[in-house]
Design brief:
Shape: globular
Structural class: alpha+beta
Largest sheet: 6 strands, mixed
Low-confidence stretches: 86-99, 116-125, 440-459, 487-530
Helix content: 40-55%
Number of helices: 18
Order of helices and strands: HEEHHHHHHEEHHHHHEEHEHHEEEHEEHH
Strand content: 5-15%
């Protein structure tokens, strides 16, 4: 039985035929309505699903790469299967990707030389390019010509991610390989060392301490502060020792990664695919460039549109529970940046999703979301002005620009990201075209009201409105007390329980007379809350 299709690319012809073979095998072993274990990469033979769902999961997520003998679905252990995987690093000529690394390092070598000639401050590019060249020349062991230390570690980390190898197992594999290779060898001895190697080459992240109440980020002018200048809380869990911060925001720099897209000829060519190789079809939306947003942006900024290398981005935001336990109320908020210059099959490839921020929990950042976005916004402003980048395709330096055209999120996250209201009377952003609705939180009462006002309203009118609301809430509080006292007096028998609705009805009539409809609504909210 040939099971090599399991390692093929999703939605390729060979993979689809293999999925059909698996489902035919299932139909021979199980009845049509019987649930079976799902062998996809998400379920991992741990969940029972309907057969149609299993078929969809395998097509969408892929078959678990090590499940080549289908023992959980009635296959015998002694079945002879062909399971030789397609090596993800192999090239067409079978040289295990050596030419690809040589080509990439050749482009990097040219980039280093070009950066030193065309920039006044060559050190701007030395941090990444020269470190990569130094690692590329470092042998894995004496006499090894097939791998450098860098290329070997990168391939091992790729296999770790591809086959879901645990950190401890990966460390044990590295130790065995280090003992097996001739001495002396330069192979890293643990997973942490491998991560540090990549971090030195610009593939790490920056840890930024955050106030416990999400007031500020301890960076720039607040970098040396031990207490939040807004709320006064300590930056540290233990103020005496000053070792563990209350919260940590992880920032993955975006500019270096966008620059690295152009360090190889293949990457530089894919970044211009939408203009160089795309074949437009009338009345068909096959790429974001066919959309109205892209076309309208090009009309407004023709200078940006002239260079096909300038990147259009989208930002995707959503919260998730990292523990996978819905009983635990904890959520983290990753912020992804997705480049849309790439071909359609690469735009939605997860390997091209760039995590820019990882916002800590345990709750949604809410109205403080803009504080966490500061590092990303600064990078986006820098990219709008332009950053000097080397293009391996033209072998010249150019100014790379980038702009955000789309934001991907659910409707509640629209309020978190933009600051406008997505609840209540003015929730719909399409119907509510003229006013801008904001949520006002009051410290003097439990009332949370939505005030919608026109753009030309003056600050004095807002203050008058707030003063009116404060006075109205005071009247409502006193009215609520008198309502309850009056109904107690009317309850002469003392046996019947006074219904809350009667109090609300009587109170609502007086509010309508004194304050009109606004007073009626606020009164119902305030009395109903008690």
């Amino acid at each position: 039985m040939d099971r090599r299709w399991i390692h093929r690319t999703l939605f390729s012809r060979e993979y689809i035929e293999g999925v059909k073979e698996f489902m035919n095998f299932i139909q021979d072993k199980f009845s049509k309505d019987e649930k079976i274990l799902c062998p996809c990469r998400n379920c991992l033979n741990q969940k029972h699903q309907h057969q149609t769902v299993v078929n969809t999961h395998i097509l969408t997520y892929g078959m678990e790469s090590t499940y080549t003998c289908w023992i959980y679905h009635g296959e015998d252990f002694d079945v002879d299967v062909i399971e030789e995987p397609v090596h993800v690093h192999d090239t067409a000529d079978g040289n295990n990707g050596a030419d690809r690394f040589e080509e990439m390092f050749g482009d990097l070598r040219t980039a280093v030389e070009q950066a030193g000639i065309e920039t006044e401050n060559p050190s701007e590019h030395e941090s990444f390019l020269k470190n990569v060249m130094k690692e590329a020349k470092q042998q894995l062991y004496h006499g090894c010509t097939k791998f450098s230390r860098f290329s070997f570690v990168v391939k091992l980390l790729h296999l770790k991610s591809y086959h879901r190898i645990t950190n401890s197992a990966f460390t044990d594999i590295l130790k065995i390989l280090a003992e097996a290779f001739p001495e002396p060898n330069t192979l890293t001895k643990s997973y942490e060392e491998a991560k540090n190697l990549l971090k030195e080459l610009g593939l790490g992240y920056v840890s930024i301490h955050v106030c416990f109440n999400n007031c500020i980020l301890f960076r720039k002018q607040y970098a040396n502060h031990d207490n939040c200048p807004v709320c006064g809380l300590s930056r540290w869990k233990d103020p005496a020792r000053k070792k563990i911060p209350q919260k940590v925001l992880r920032h993955f720099p975006l500019v270096p990664r966008l620059r690295r897209m152009f360090l190889s000829k293949k990457g530089a060519e894919e970044a211009q695919w939408h203009k160089l190789k795309r074949q437009p079809i009338e009345k068909e939306l096959s790429h974001p460039v066919d959309g109205d947003a892209w076309k309208d942006f090009d009309k407004q900024y023709p200078d940006f549109a002239k260079d096909a290398r300038n990147i259009r981005l989208s930002i995707a935001i959503d919260g998730f529970n990292p523990f996978g336990n819905f009983n635990t109320t904890y959520s983290m908020w990753p912020v992804f940046v997705i480049p849309y210059n790439l071909p359609p099959w690469a735009c939605m490839d997860q390997s091209n999703f760039m995590m820019a921020l990882l916002i800590p929990g345990p709750k949604s950042p809410g109205k403080h979301f803009d504080a966490f976005l500061q590092p990303l916004v600064e990078e986006l402003l820098e990219l709008w002005e332009g950053v000097s980048t080397y293009d391996a395709l033209s072998e010249k330096m150019f100014d790379l620009h980038a702009a955000v055209l789309w934001c991907i999120h659910d409707y509640p996250a629209l309020s978190t990201l933009s600051g406008r209201t997505t609840r209540g009377y003015f929730a719909c952003i399409h119907c509510d075209k003229h006013p801008i609705s904001y949520g006002l939180r009051k410290k003097w009462g439990i009332l949370v009201t939505i005030v919608s006002f026109q753009r030309d309203i003056v600050c004095g009118e807002i203050m008058n409105l707030l003063v009116f609301m404060k006075a109205m809430i005071g009247q409502v509080n006193s009215l609520r007390k008198s309502c309850k006292q009056n109904w107690r007096r009317l309850d002469l028998g003392g046996n019947k329980k006074v219904r809350k609705g009667n109090v609300l009805t009587w109170a609502a009539r007086r509010l309508m007379c004194q304050f009109g409809a606004a007073g009626f609504v606020c009164g119902i909210w305030n009395i109903g809350g008690n």
